[in-house]
Write a structure and sequence with these properties.
Shape: globular
Largest sheet: 15 strands, mixed
Structural class: alpha/beta
CATH topology of the largest domain: Rossmann fold
Order of helices and strands: HHHHEEEHEEEHHEHEEEEHEHEHHEEEEH
Family: Belongs to the GSP E family.
CATH superfamily of the largest domain: P-loop containing nucleotide triphosphate hydrolases
Organism: Friedmanniella luteola
GO molecular function: ATP hydrolysis activity
Number of helices: 13
Distance between the termini: 80 Å
Protein name: Pilus assembly protein, ATPase of CpaF family
CATH class of the largest domain: Alpha Beta
Helix content: 25-40%
InterPro entries: P-loop_NTPase, T2SS/T4SS_dom, T4SS_GSP_E_ATPase
Radius of gyration: 25 Å
CATH architecture of the largest domain: 3-Layer(aba) Sandwich
């Protein structure tokens, strides 16, 4: 009886450690296309009749048949037979291309890599968990091959397939295992891809203190703020760690509270942490496809705005919005008015810029939302803005290093007629390090009953005793 290679054994855990060396990637691309065509024909229109495990077993059989046929063709043409090790690596690569991420799979599986940045098939940068950014190997033999694989990847998703074509030149996709892929092509000189892999999922504020992201006293303040049901916006540049901090804040939510999460692609994954968060309703936005209807919407479109309005019938204790980018801020504000303790994120350079951006987002809902109304709504319903800092420095070895820390915490209150709100630096910026204690508004002294280390705060702020 012929022994199956490791990747072809049913339910096998496929080894990705062999790396890209020794694989004919042009052959992989050809075999993947052939295997995909045969698999689609075998499954027919009803792809759901076989679960993922059964589809993979069928795929393994198809790949074995293709490899055996190719090996026979090589012998008939007088070419040397493949060594078993080469055939095994080739089959593994085709399997990954068909069911995984192809040449990207070893990078996504590498626990040392946090983000993968691609600006062309042969221009690859890897952001590592230690903060360094280093060059990587090519992920395709050409830009056309990379785009072809992205199109295949987008259409393959059983849960949330997405279009990617010259007519729809952008792609945002949730990958197996929790990574998020963003890609553009046809409107960029070369295909651009970023894969974000959140390595810190089950994270706490104590973990972030240990990593130097914030001080212990700032962590005690934020933990108390969550328990006291203050509404918090986490702001910062892309890649600053906003999602990680939101996960850590959510770890302070009592387990009996029902949580709703609202994201364009699942990143928080609170619904997968049933030991910490037993009751989570997780919504994911869905882009439409095809022509727009009379209402200007594409068929099948489902927005965060709609998800937030739908959530009002789910008896939620908290609404967590992965990122506020537009008119969904109005639904978020309604959620804050209905029940305090919401958490959301947005991109901004500093804390006050985050408030201005949220006002602008609210005004995108239409002319009926005036600047005064938007400002008042933001000021009355957001209690804290937590700003994160991201800096990038060359390492001297051709790479870069990224450092992240909590830069400031602003308390927000209505006031100051010109701006419509007033801010206080509870934790103020400090050069080259996490924020330090600043000025504590009187109403925040009550957070001591939720665990805020008030004596240490005043000592750090230079305020002496209580």
């Amino acid at each position: 009886m012929t022994q199956l290679p490791s990747w072809a054994a049913p339910h096998a855990a496929v080894d990705t450690a062999s790396g890209p060396g020794g694989v004919d990637w042009s052959m992989v691309a050809v075999l993947r296309a052939q295997a995909s065509e045969r698999l689609s024909a075998a499954l027919g229109e009803d792809r759901t009749r076989l679960d993922r495990s059964a589809q993979q077993e069928l795929g393994r059989a198809i790949i074995l048949e293709l490899l055996q046929a190719e090996a026979g063709d090589r012998l008939s043409a007088g070419e040397p037979a493949w060594p078993l090790a080469v055939q095994d690596r080739l089959g593994e690569a085709v399997f990954h291309a068909l069911f995984g991420l192809g040449r990207l799979q070893p990078l996504v599986d590498d626990d040392r890599i946090e983000n993968i940045i691609i600006t062309g098939h042969d221009r690859v940068w890897l952001e590592r968990t230690d903060g360094r950014t280093v060059a990587g190997e090519p992920v395709a033999d050409s830009d056309a091959e990379l785009v072809d694989f992205l199109v295949f990847l987008a259409s393959r998703s059983e849960v949330n397939a997405r279009p990617f074509s010259p007519a729809v030149p952008r792609l945002h996709l949730r990958l197996d295992g929790g990574a998020r892929l963003a890609a553009s092509a046809w409107v960029t000189p070369r295909p651009s891809v970023v894969i974000r892999r959140h390595r810190l999922q089950s994270v706490t504020l104590a973990d972030l203190v240990h990593r130097g992201t914030l001080s212990a006293v700032a962590a005690s303040f934020l933990a108390a703020a969550v328990k006291a049901r203050l509404s918090i916006v986490v702001a910062g540049p892309q890649g600053a760690g906003k999602t990680t901090l939101v996960r850590a804040l959510c770890a302070e939510i009592p387990p009996w509270e029902a949580i709703g999460t609202f994201e364009t692609e699942y990143e928080l994954h609170l619904h997968e942490m049933s030991d910490r968060h037993p009751i989570v309703h997780a919504w994911e936005a869905r882009p439409g496809s095809g022509e727009r209807g009379p209402d200007g919407r594409q068929a099948g479109e489902f927005t965060l705005d709609e998800a937030l309005y739908d959530s009002f019938r789910f008896n939620l204790s908290r609404q967590i919005v992965g990122e506020v980018r537009g008119r969904e801020i109005l639904a978020m504000i309604k959620a804050m008015e209905s029940g305090a303790g919401s958490i959301s994120t947005t991109h901004a350079r500093h804390g006050e810029a985050a408030l201005r951006k949220l006002v602008t987002c609210a005004m995108e809902a239409g002319a009926h939302v005036t600047h005064d109304y938007a400002t008042r709504a933001v000021a009355e319903n957001i209690d804290l803005v937590v700003q994160l800092h991201l800096s990038t420095q060359p390492t001297g070895s051709g790479g870069f290093r990224r450092d992240r820390w909590l830069a400031e915490i602003l308390a927000v209150t209505p006031g100051e007629r010109d701006r419509g709100y007033a801010t206080t630096h509870v934790f103020r910026p400090a050069a080259g390090q996490p924020a330090v204690a600043g000025v504590l508004p009187d109403e925040y002294r009550s957070l001591e009953q939720y665990g805020f280390d008030l004596p240490t705060f005043y000592a750090e702020a230079g305020g002496g005793t209580l």
